[in-house]
Design a protein that fits this description.
The chain is α/β, with parallel strands linked by helices. The protein contains 22 helices and 19 strands. The radius of gyration is 32 Å and the shape is elongated.
Length: 570
């Protein structure tokens, strides 16, 4: 009879009624109050003097078989950081106590609150073990944890910012994602601030990295990673979801890597593209965002750091009607910017330019850009074949990775097209032997390749640079010749100021080895000469090695000796 009449009550209220500790009418009234006041049922019980907090905890522990714990001896510092979303802590009056393996012990005054426990299990991905505590000791800790999390987000988020996000199709986020923004406004504001800070500091990449006990965000500025924020661990999933929504990625898929793009509209005249990559790790999804600023391709060749003779050789090569120009270097050495700078010089109404990239990093008006997609069959080789049927003048291939792509590129260079491309080799002479090793006949290489540029990026010294005194022998060991040490120049090292944030460096400059393919080098290629033979001939023709170009930048006071030693081989 009693069970039937208490069917609308919560499990704890029903147990109290059935145990004779509370009248049914009182139970219904207190439940209604808790809903109206947005409190919990145990709070209303204690606040209305229906049962003391200690007796309620004892009763709940015995009735539902959950252990009893005294929170008086527990400190906030011991709470596992980020294990439970602060919103769930506040709404369900449940806090995490400790974590063991894949199980999380949580403190609650109502162990029968299955809805709250299930939400926490789903959000944390852990099995939940409820532990009963007194509501009067639980509430202060709930408030403390909630407020500290809110303050962290407020301090990180800063002032309100109005920015527009577009995905790669040029569309804004959907209504569903906009509705989510209202609920997670601090996360949205925080992400906007991070993106703006990264752009203002000239970062090339942003890393969002979750770990077991903390979450960090790092910027790659001038080639070096540095930590810029450690937001609450609890926001990692919401931050990842927000980024994935904007980038049109599958927010439900967290087990495989995903790639996407988004655009941040700063003004009517300026927008920044981001290439987004997600990677499942042990403790959540790591997200790396590559910042693709179109203005980097329009800086002009003077800003890249070429010496006058190197610039003249490059401009002469790209001014030819046909042939191949190759740019080589490791990932992150600025090859794409160099290629796009050349394309920007060549981009005129009377010239048809097509590019195949993986993916297209910088959008340039007037150039036909194609994203290769191996899964659908649109490989570099397939794109090149199509380009040759599209009446091209200039073709840019993002990277020559295999024999088929190399053969088609060489064929295009021999049949009246200028071909620009990249390879991953250490220096210019090794590029020629790499092409030979790929299977390209030597006579095809000799007849098609016009010029090879190898490059590295070194950090530029800030204006706070300071003169340095380095032993003469150390300079000779670094590659300087006796004739260089004539006292006519000053060796500078990094200083420290607010502009460079104490690092001593601001911006980066290219270090180049520009090797035109002369008749002598062509003969060496036809004779299957080694990289050493080609390098020796290039040196006789006045081609500087990467180290020699770097040391020239040291003499000019542009960069430091340590930077050159760290980015080039002797």
């Amino acid at each position: 009879m009693v069970a039937a009449s208490t069917s609308n009550l919560s499990a704890l209220a029903r147990a109290l009624v059935q145990g004779g500790r509370l009248k049914e009418n009182d139970a219904e009234q207190l439940l209604t109050q808790s809903l109206n006041n947005k409190t919990s049922f145990p709070e209303e019980l204690v606040n209305n003097n229906k049962i003391p907090a200690s007796e309620l905890a004892q009763f709940a522990s015995e009735t539902f078989g959950a252990p009893l714990f005294d929170l008086s001896a527990f400190e906030e510092a011991h709470v596992p950081k980020g294990a439970v979303d602060p919103k769930l802590i506040r709404s369900h009056r449940i806090i995490p106590l400790f974590k063991r393996g894949n199980r999380l012990a949580v403190a609650t005054a109502d162990p029968a609150n299955l809805h709250g426990l299930e939400e926490i299990r789903f959000q944390s991905g852990l099995s939940i073990d409820p532990i009963v505590v007194e509501i009067t000791k639980l509430l202060p800790l709930v408030t403390q944890l909630s407020e500290s999390a809110e303050e962290s987000m407020k301090s990180l988020g800063g002032e309100d910012i109005n920015l527009d996000f577009l995905d790669e199709t040029g569309e804004a986020p959907t209504e569903e994602s906009a509705a989510t923004d209202v609920d997670d406004a601090p996360v949205v504001k925080f992400l906007q601030k991070i993106l703006l800070d990264a752009i203002n500091e000239g970062a090339s990449d942003i890393h969002f990295e979750p770990y077991e006990k903390y979450y960090r965000i790092r910027f790659r500025v001038d080639g070096n990673l540095r930590e810029v924020a450690t937001p609450p661990l609890a926001i990692k999933d919401k931050l990842a979801s927000r980024i994935k929504v904007i980038s049109r990625l599958n927010i439900a898929e967290k087990r495989v890597p995903q790639d996407g793009r988004m655009k941040l509209v700063l003004s009517k005249t300026r927008a920044i593209d981001f290439r987004v990559s997600t990677l499942p790790t042990l403790h959540g999804e790591k997200i790396v965002m590559r910042i693709l600023d179109p203005t980097s391709a329009t800086l002009g060749i003077e800003a890249l750091g070429y010496e006058e003779d190197q610039k003249a050789a490059l401009l002469d090569a790209i001014g030819r009607p046909y042939g191949m120009v190759l740019v080589t270097g490791p990932t992150g050495s600025g090859k794409t910017v160099s290629l796009y700078t050349c394309l920007n010089i060549l981009n005129e109404p009377g010239i048809n330019i097509s590019t195949a990239e993986d993916p297209a990093e910088i959008n340039l008006a007037g150039i036909n850009q194609v994203n290769v997609d191996d899964k659908s069959g649109l490989t570099f080789a397939a794109a090149l074949k199509s380009f040759l049927r599209q009446d091209p003048d200039i073709i840019m291939v993002g990277e020559i990775r295999d024999l088929e792509t190399a053969e088609i590129a060489v064929k295009a260079a021999q049949t009246g097209h200028l071909v620009l491309s990249t390879l991953h080799t250490n220096d210019a002479p090794q590029t020629l032997t790499r092409l030979m090793n790929m299977g390209i006949p030597t006579f095809n290489i000799a007849s098609s390749v016009l010029l090879i540029t190898a490059q590295r990026l070194a950090r530029k010294l800030c204006n706070c640079k300071q003169p340095m005194d380095v032993p003469r022998q150390a300079l000779l060991n670094a590659g300087f010749k006796e004739a260089d040490l004539d006292g006519s120049w000053t060796l500078y090292g990094p200083g420290s100021c607010d502009r460079c944030k104490g690092s001593g460096y601001k911006g980066r400059v290219g270090i180049y080895q520009v090797m035109p393919i002369s008749e002598e080098i062509q003969r060496l290629i036809l004779a299957s000469g080694t990289a050493l033979d080609i390098a020796a001939q290039a040196a006789r023709e006045g081609v500087r090695t990467l180290r020699e170009s770097g040391l020239l930048k040291v003499k000019q006071g542009v960069t430091s000796l340590d930077e050159v030693l760290g980015t080039t081989n002797i």
